[in-house]
Amino acid sequence: MTAHVTLGTREQARDGAPTLEAFSRQLLASGILSPSGVDGVWVRSATFERITEAVQRSVTALGRGRYETIQVPPVIARATLERAGYVRSFTDLVGSVHVFRGSDQQHADLLRRCDAGTDWAAVLDPADVMLSSAACHHVYPMCAGRLPPGGRRVEVRGECFRHEPSSQVTRHRSFRMHELVFVGEPVDALTHRDAGLAEGLELLSTLGLTVEAAAANDPFFGRAGAILADGQRQDAAKYEGVAPVGDLPTAIMSANYAAEHFGAAFAIATAGGVVAHSSCVAFGLDRVALALLSAHGLDVDRWPVGVRQRLWQ
Amino acid sequence: MTAHVTLGTREQARDGAPTLEAFSRQLLASGILSPSGVDGVWVRSATFERITEAVQRSVTALGRGRYETIQVPPVIARATLERAGYVRSFTDLVGSVHVFRGSDQQHADLLRRCDAGTDWAAVLDPADVMLSSAACHHVYPMCAGRLPPGGRRVEVRGECFRHEPSSQVTRHRSFRMHELVFVGEPVDALTHRDAGLAEGLELLSTLGLTVEAAAANDPFFGRAGAILADGQRQDAAKYEGVAPVGDLPTAIMSANYAAEHFGAAFAIATAGGVVAHSSCVAFGLDRVALALLSAHGLDVDRWPVGVRQRLWQ
Questions:
Q1: Confidence (pTM)
Q2: If we measure between CA atoms, which residue out of A275, A265, A258, A277 comes closest to residue A146?
């Protein structure tokens, strides 16, 4: 479960690699990311997008045409996120969308609150949508019912939101996930996770990243959450691919075996009639881009020729 | 301000063009868009994305390298949307992001509400972000202060949200905007708007769309909103490029002169020291894709060769 790749000159250069703080300063000075005025929400330059789009193409290539491909919006049905168990388990991370459905009189109240600088948002109501927390959450309701033999493979990308305010350039509240999802027979779901992890690490390695697999857990919330996190580690259900950004080891991909969690929640049955299991291999496109900028420098045109060829040819 | 282009066979075919309802049925049956479980939020297929990405490249080409290019996340600083005046003027369209910042006890309360099926979102607080309503809103805070001579040109794309629930396939609550924005001298802002409108209509025409410019107004909310909308029409501040989707004339682009609205709100001064004016030419990538599918059919490989060449060569 571990892949080490060292491109000689890069590894030597790492002895003098900047700290995350120094890397961040250089990154912002370069304009590759620009602040938006709030923590964890970044405006992306053409250079940054050139990288994330190339990584995205690489992930698609990893799928080798075996997946249905979808792109999902950044909002999702509230009922879907509730059924996924996300609200209960990751309560502190969710973004709930609230809207105005009031009368003229309530609008006048809202305007008065705006004028007074008090909390106008208090007059809003929850909408039927929330911010999407993981791209794959859109996939499971689409699989409800009986799956075809061999299960279903879906490549999904979309922008996600997790409320983790931080000024660190590696912790975006709004970020792009690109996932390869499998839903089907239990044994196939586990195979998909393990093969996807190996292939994902290999991909990141060929891009010149020093990436290692590490057992991990999701950041379940609250007291019950600690028990869930322990269980996830004991079951070896989650691995992350970790690469340095500056001097900070940063999870840039993950490979997750969800067992029957989503199959049960969304009433998905295998062709054989049992509750479907699922797994997903997820790439954080923004974080992969940051790891690449950290490894190869801020001037993309001076990245190692092999890396540029893999990304842009 | 009007551009008509008719590709002979297409225009003839339009006599038998399906209604929006029939087009929608065929579109959904084809899987080009899939429902997400709530109105106005659609899962996008690889085919749909192939089209939106090609349109996006065409809009970038329209900029001819004269613009800084940025990509923006679907959330924006709450303070930015407030300063932009969007909350007051389009109160019914905004999406406010609310998050959990409570104690263990409040979490227990939230879980009880989840169990009981009552409104758990009532225990949330407004975050410092909202959903982005227009891609260009991210641009104005970046321009605060004194502009360089000649002003600033920014190409911006991003996913936007407007709370207009509808089952119509043309009215997405979550949708992609691609805009060419100018901020600078008043006369230059107006020139940018008019030139961008002409060039945008020309672009859409070369893609085989029957597109017409129409004076328009933004959907300002409430009683005061009606007055603002009237003023906008009297000032000829907004034009839309309208093309049929099925039999429904649909705004697929707009060209907007905002005068000093954003310059004043975000303290942007021209090189000469006066309040900057701004204008933007905005393409609704999802709607342009729908208009193309309506005009040329659901099988992209059978679109007119000239259109395919423009989009993919």
A1: 0.94
A2: A275
Question: How far apart (Å, rounded) are the C-alpha atoms in residues A56 and A58?
Answer: 5
**Sheet with B125-131, edge to edge strand ranges:** A75-77, A125-131, A96-99, B96-99, B125-131, B75-77
Structure tokens at A171: 């912790």
- Chain A residues with beta carbon closer than 8 angstroms to that of B100: 91-92, 94, 163
Q: Quick one: A235 exposed, middle or buried, by C-beta within 10 A (0-12, 13-18, 19+)?
A: exposed
CA distance A110 to A51: 43
Paired with B244 in beta bridges are: B249
**Range(s) of chain A covered by CATH 3.30.930.10:** 8-95+133-312
Chain A contacts of B161, Cβ < 8 Å?
74-75, 97
CATH code linked to domain B8-95+133-312: 3.30.930.10
- pLDDT, tens only, A98-142: 999 999 899 999 999 999 988 999 999 999 999 999 999 999 999
The residue that leads in pLDDT, A313 or A7, is: A313
So what's the pLDDT on residue A16? Answer: 63
Place of tokens 């409108």: B197
**Are the C-beta atoms of A312 and A54 separated by less than 8 Å?**
yes
Where does residue A6 fall: left (phi above 0), alpha (psi -120 to 50 degrees), or beta otherwise? Answer: beta
Q: Do A36 and B223 touch (CB under 8 A)?
A: no
Q: Is A29 helix (H, G, I), strand (E, B) or coil?
A: helix
